[in-house]
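wait is this the right file?? whatever heres the structure
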């Protein structure tokens, strides 16, 4: 509790500036995802969806490599931009709700995304606390590095 009070007293004045500079980091996406092992399969699934031979949800149920996601027809839910790999965040940020993005290759395979909703960032009390915590942790890390190198 004391650390929270110290963090708030040190960094509360910087919250709005930080939020303005990093607004995109706090956007959230509500997404569905399909991950398959091969690029050719991802391209074929995308083609079938675009030609309305199969829905995104059916494709996720049949083809996704993750059993949990298959049962949920690809539903990933709400994810924050900063928690995603940069290439994935860029694809999701470039499409509109209802559109499909990908395929994108990662270590898990080839991803297709259906963007259900883009949630614009707002400076809520929860976001304010996350920013203060992040600034406080960054400050603590830099202080520790300084102390280690100057002893």
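ok assuming it is, sequence goes like this
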């Amino acid at each position: 509790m004391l650390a929270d009070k110290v963090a708030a007293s040190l960094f509360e004045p910087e919250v709005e500036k930080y939020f303005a500079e990093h607004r995109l980091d706090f956007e959230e996406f509500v997404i569905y995802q399909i991950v398959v092992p091969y690029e050719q399969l991802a391209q074929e699934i995308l083609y079938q969806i675009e030609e309305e031979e199969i829905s995104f949800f059916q494709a996720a149920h049949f083809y996704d490599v993750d059993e949990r996601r298959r049962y949920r027809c690809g539903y990933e839910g709400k994810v924050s931009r900063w928690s995603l790999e940069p290439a994935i965040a860029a694809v999701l940020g470039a499409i509109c709700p209802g559109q499909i993005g990908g395929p994108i290759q990662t270590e898990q395979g080839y991803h297709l995304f259906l963007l259900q909703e883009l949630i614009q960032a707002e400076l809520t009390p929860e976001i304010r606390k996350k920013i203060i915590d992040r600034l406080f942790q960054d400050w603590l890390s830099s202080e520790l590095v300084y102390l280690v190198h100057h002893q």
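The helical segments are 2-11, 15-21, 39-50, 56-63, 67-71, 86-94, 125-149. so i think its the right one actually
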